[in-house]
Amino acid sequence: MAATLDREPSISAFLDGRPKRHLINGEWVASSSGATYETINPSTGESLAVLAECTVEDVDRAVAAARAAFEGRWSTFSPAERQNVLLRFADLVWDAYAELRVLDALDAGVPIGHDPTLGREFMVEVLRYYAGWATKLHGQAIRPALPNPCFAYTVKEPVGVVASIFPWNAPHSFALWKLAPALATGCTIVLKPAEEGSLSPLRMCELIQELDLPPGVVNILTGTGSTAGVALTEHPGVDKISFTGSTATGQAIVRASAGNLKRVTLELGGKSPDIVFADAKLDDAVLGTGMSIFWNAGQVCCAGSRTFVERAIYDEFVERLTILANTVKVGDSSHPDTVVGPLISHRQLDRVTGYLERGRAEGARTLAGGARLTDGALGNGYFVSPTVFVDVRDDMEIACEEIFGPVASILPFDTMDEVARRANLTEYGLRSGIWTSDIGKAHKLARLLRTGVVWVNTYGQFDPAVPFGGYKMSGLGHELGEASLDDYLNVKSVWINTE
Ligand code: NAD
Prior knowledge:
Layout (H helix, E strand, L loop, with lengths): L8 H6 L7 E3 L2 E3 L6 E6 L4 E7 L3 H16 L7 H30 L11 H14 L7 E2 L7 E9 L2 E5 L5 H15 L2 E5 L6 H11 L8 E3 L4 H10 L5 E5 L2 H10 L6 E5 L5 E4 L5 H13 L11 E5 L3 H14 L18 H16 L3 E4 L18 E4 L6 H4 L6 E7 L2 H8 L4 E2 L1 E5 L3 H10 L4 E4 L11 E2 L1 E2 L2 E2 L1 E2 L9 E9 L2
Parallel strand pairs: 7-8, 7-10, 8-9, 10-11, 12-13, 12-18, 13-16, 15-16, 18-19
Antiparallel strand pairs: 1-2, 3-4, 5-6, 6-24, 11-22, 14-15, 17-21, 20-23
Helix pairs in contact: 2-7, 3-4, 3-5, 3-6, 4-5, 5-6, 9-10
Bound molecules: nicotinamide-adenine-dinucleotide.
């Protein structure tokens, strides 16, 4: 199965061996320098495709095209026309969804058979949800508070040219989450996917070409963060950056975007606590916490990488999670049974194994995994076995830093106040999980946790209508929901003298 996926007719038509190009101003074009780079399948180490490597000049051309489209015919599209664009796009994504999943499995190592979100239904519904918003972006009629001969109203207007930069761990999802609100609000967009996860966003842009939008409404550039990403964040022609990625890059983007005070939204890293009380349904809690850190080899921003377990059930929980770690299916991400795929690259492999070594050196004990997998075909890819650490202290590096690998640290606790304090002992504030049969306890702890999302007796739920953001160093602004729209809109106040 795995070896044949790239020979499926639609995939082999896309991966036809010809270099992939940028989409700029409605045309597929090579890099201005002619430079290309290769992307590989992280499950096998084999070459997959050659892509155009973006230059600063390519960025200038894409931003100019997006600006011209923003000021041109796209600005005359009515809200209902933008709604229909998104609805037609949703239908195309519905039909092509399996291809997007295969490309993410081959290119970015995202397991094809296990999708903790609703997959196709969820992704297509994101487009339909924002299609609905296109006709509902209303301002307000305001009677001024002070004695005043005037009447005022507000209108919401698109911010302009948006550059969307995102990582490789869920490429087609990020592209969709960023395209949908941008198009609903009337912005134009330049997509910059990660070097290691550009194929599904490129395929998505082929679908967008079928919509016959004015050229330049949607552009895509492939290449490095250090050239394409930096040029976009510094560019005076970009009005907003929508970024998903690491906290360090998010900080660099805030600094680089100061030149024209771009609107910046950031979805960043995490070190999310997943908290299991003794009264939890243990089967659910073990599976939920385990999948939150092992699925996609832990390369998930929301990964529950610190599992706090009430002392009364600590030993039993550890035993059960260790069994799960030892039995969960690790393998080629194109195989339908795989839950834990490869790490994205050799660099990421070195990073994760470095954390494993330093964790042991600091005194943590490994009960499962803890090493690179080199058996048979797995040795050609970048696999690390699902790992369970115990004897972890809150101040150890493995308990403080985002590893982005399948590495669980299990820490005992005694009281709710104690676990709330320890869960918040991190610079991050992305997600948290609570497992308990006592709903009052869940509400109380949910209030105490300083994270943008709290999941109770579940982990990793998403919905187009529910906002998704981070506290502290985990982000600024939101994806999904009504909340994300404000970041794509300016509010203009108009005063009318009624005398
Ligand atoms: P990264 O920050 O290195 O790269 C992300 C994107 O930014 C890539 O497209 C890259 O080319 C680009 N980039 C790199 N340097 C840049 C720069 N100086 N200026 C502009 N663009 C630049 O992230 P990564 O390590 O590839 O991805 C993993 C990180 O992403 C983890 O920290 C993870 O938690 C985070 N993430 C967050 C969310 C969320 O929703 N909060 C979702 C997924 C991943």
